[in-house]
Protein 1
Amino acid sequence: KFGPSVMTTAVSDDGNLIAMAGQASKIHVYDSRAGKLLDDLSGHKGLISGVAFRRNSHELFSGCFDRTGKVWNLDEMAYVESLFGHYSEITSMDAMHGERALSCGMDRTVRLWKIPEETQLVFRGHHAAYVFLPGNCISGHAQSACSALSLWS
């Protein structure tokens, strides 16, 4: 149904919810047991590049080319808050233990969001944007011949 417009997906730890997003600037939330659409969440103003469920919960983090991250409560199908700080497109979003999210951006930063404290730690890269790999964060420069690569695990 969504074809090439889906850029990112996530499944809740209990397997009950599936979040899909991409070019339509909406997050489509499905009930995996019933196979039906529960809601379309609006709030971003661009391509949604990453969605990730907080572990053992139905809290969802999303990142977008509009430079914002967002927090959603999918038990209530409600927007919770926005995460501001990136100066360029967010390229990936991931969830960590507790109420923490991790985002990578074209501004060459990785940001660790501490949601309850409403703070963030900023890790600056060399010459590149970041891309997430399962369990790691990798940075590399795709548009020059610098041949530099950094990996955090």
Note: The CA atoms of residues 55 and 97 lie 6 Å apart.
Protein 2
Amino acid sequence: QKRDRMHLAIVLLALASLVSCTTFPLKRIEVTREQKAHLRGLTKRDNDIPLQGGIATVGLFYASIELGTPPQPLNVQVDTGSSDLLVYGAQCKSCGSGAKYNFRTSSSYAVVPCDEKGFRCSTCEQFNGEDACSFSDYYGDGTGVNGSVITDMLTVGTYSDIKIALGNIQSSTQNFEPAPVDGIWGVSYPDLAITKPAIFDLFTQAGVYKGYGLCLGENPSMSFGEPSADFQFTPITQVRYFDVQMNDLQVNGVSIGQSNFSETIVDSGTTLLLLPPKIFAALYQGMLSQCDSNSNLVGICGTSLNTSLFGGQCFSIPDTSIYPTLTVVLQPNIKLDIPPSAYLLPQNNQYCLGIAVTSLTILGDVFMQNFNVFFDIQNSQVGFADPSSCPSTK
């Protein structure tokens, strides 16, 4: 089945004709030690799991999990833009040199039969001498994986012995997941899944609140349990991806004059902030209008779209703080600021733009890093809080 994964590689594809830089170190919002100590007591949820990776390193965020009996450690990208748990299998020769899941050493694994209800099997194929539900998953970035659907036990954080379905990848195109990542953990709704989403089995079997928080800033983490910070919630408009209604985009508080933001998705599997072409061009014009009062915006003032930051050019910028703050406005009237330190990405002593073009609006990691984001599946809403409310997992 062909599906769209909102993932790093689709971002690189969108940028391929624009910019050659591929790694983007970021400045982080600083919180004092005293603030952290105070907020840890306020925001600790049932289970806070540290995430690794980042925009500056592998362009994604990943969690450490364990599969099988005895447990086998693996790193999986946490992706709110897909719903399957897919991991490299030990028999996969095209899956790179990282860790791989070996079903043969797990006493708790079982094959999912071809006629098992609730699964979208591509075909029925032999797996370890049994007829098994198989999958074929291809993504918008040109990558793809194939394998068999099985069940086994999941351990993540303090939650253990969670029986889940997963895709055991037996063949993969090159660079499906970059090292040291061994698979992908889709944490969106069942409508996107080939298997049954592991995140929902965790909710049910562990008896935890149906939702989780993601902090992708200074101290990346994934948190389970009811939201405890002061979140502003926007309703989910379509139970598939985490679709929300975006009403406006502002430059220093001034609207860019566009209202059709197409489908808008909050997605941890996309590195940058992606906008439809019309919105992207209007944002450039909105930035250009700032030159009337500030002609020192290098890469904006005195440029055309193609020769500017918006054309994929990178520039030496003495002071990023003079650039305007961007504001995303979500339904009903939630205003979420993106400072220039978030959307101007350092690369080789220059700065590149962390915003690119695609067919829909995707609020990726460049956007998400500025907030504590709570994906409230139980109440069909997404919440945003100040990043100072993020838990400490150290």
Note: The longest helix spans residues 277-288.
Protein 3
Amino acid sequence: MSKSEESVYIAFGEECINNAVSIYKSRKNEDSIIENHIMENIIKMLRGPLGLKYSCPAQSTWSLCHSTFLNVVEEGVSTACEHGSKFDGMWTELGKCLEEFLFGDHRPPVN
């Protein structure tokens, strides 16, 4: 894959993340969003790039995932607390995401 093709895929992926989170934030209290575990799935999707830290192929993607994670958690925790057991999987996924982010194997580059 050429650099220009890679850039297009990265930009497309980042735009998809932005759109998914925008939709989630505007509809987080709807039954279909809660029943289909959308918050859990967003956190699961963010876990990979966040865990990579310095090894993430595009630091712009890592930065976006970092801010997205914080936004989704801030927006969704109150809904999760209101709906209890419907969010059991989300709490597990949140813990895994934080563990990989905080204690992952990826270290900063040595300069």
Note: The chain has five helices and no strands.
